[in-house]
Amino acid sequence: MDRVRHSxxxxxxLTAGKTxxxxxxxxASAIAGLAASGAVVIAGSAVPASAxxxxxxxxxxxxxxxxxxxxxxxxxxxxxxxxxxxxIIATANGGATWHVEYATTRLGDIxxxxxxxxxxxxxxxxxxxxASTTLLxxxxxxxxxxxxxxxxxxxxxxxxxxxNGSDCWAVGYAGHGFDAVVARTTDGGGTWTREPVPALETxxxxxxxxxxASSTHCLVTGEGTLTTTNGGKAWAKHAxxxxxxPLGPATCPSTRDCYAVFDVTSAVPSFEQGSLxxxxxxxxxxxxxxxxxxxxTGFGGISCPSTSAxxxxxxxxxxxxxxxxxxxxxxEFTSTxxxxxxxxxxxxxxxxxxxxxxARTSDCIAVGQSSAGPVILKSAxxxxxxxxxxxPRT
Length: 394
Fold this sequence. Notes:
Elements: E1 10-15, E2 18-23, H1 24-35, E3 40-44, E4 58-62, E5 64-70, E6 76-82, E7 85-91, E8 99-104, E9 109-114, E10 121-126, E11 133-138, E12 146-149, E13 156-162, E14 168-173, E15 180-185, E16 193-195, E17 209-212, E18 218-222, E19 224-228, E20 236-238, E21 250-251, E22 258-264, E23 273-279, E24 287-288, E25 296-303, E26 310-319, E27 325-334, E28 342-346, E29 351-357, E30 364-370, E31 373-379, E32 387-389
Antiparallel strand pairs: 1-2, 3-4, 5-6, 6-7, 7-8, 9-10, 10-11, 11-12, 13-14, 14-15, 15-16, 17-18, 18-19, 19-20, 21-22, 22-23, 23-24, 25-26, 26-27, 27-28, 29-30, 30-31, 31-32
């Protein structure tokens, strides 16, 4: 089976003038999930009729969990998908148990999820054909989820970031091009408008990233970076790290301190490499801070519970003499603002796609994939050790 890749990493091809895309991790995880005898089945109810057309209760085989957001050590939400739809799952006890809050066949994927408070949470997803984007919102801690339309220009969402309960930003592709499309809401998710940003592309193998440390300061990453310090009134474009590096998922725990990941992809797994970059000026300039070799072949995400502490997750590859190799999950932790990193590995996990560490704690949740299907992991020590958490069932 092909390597499981980051859930928001696109393999893009132009076919008959139309942009087609596949999420490599989604395809691989769907195959793994359907083959596994213990496939997770989830069910949920439709949003109220006032928010969206009625939808019957659905049952979706969950073959991937690809995004996660923890508002505290106890409360986390995660987005998952399968061959017939997608779902939002939640925990109120630090990952010990998870339950389904929302499931739908209308969305093929939950691209990202961000929860600014225990009551308010936003998720972003797209239709199976990649023609439209939908925002999901709860304002009562997950009891009811409503849907909101995104700007039509944002057809392929990749990342979401909420500066607070009202200001949230999303980035993705238009359905017909490779430049970043940025959308913003100032009412918590009810209405969205497209932001006029400078043209920014990214590599086929690297997703756009976005992180907003405040209602005025936002960062978008790709083949270069876009920054605003006045709430989107003006955007500045900066050269990529080291001149040519396309930065992927990013997080800014303050208006000055930012972290981002970068992956070198290759048809030969042992040639791949994951890197970590830091910025001390809000994303204007970047520094490569991960020593090598680290046997890290890719990073899916990074989360920072403080300005100096961060946990990045991804995957590693140990080649064997026969030409085959072993995949395993990887996390990297720093408590020194990126100057030094400590690596931990997770056996029996092929890749970690995303993580979320509760602010000012050592508690983190990571989501990923094993050969048997999706996995949810918990760490109470900044990623030094990880334990598997049970997945939700009907």
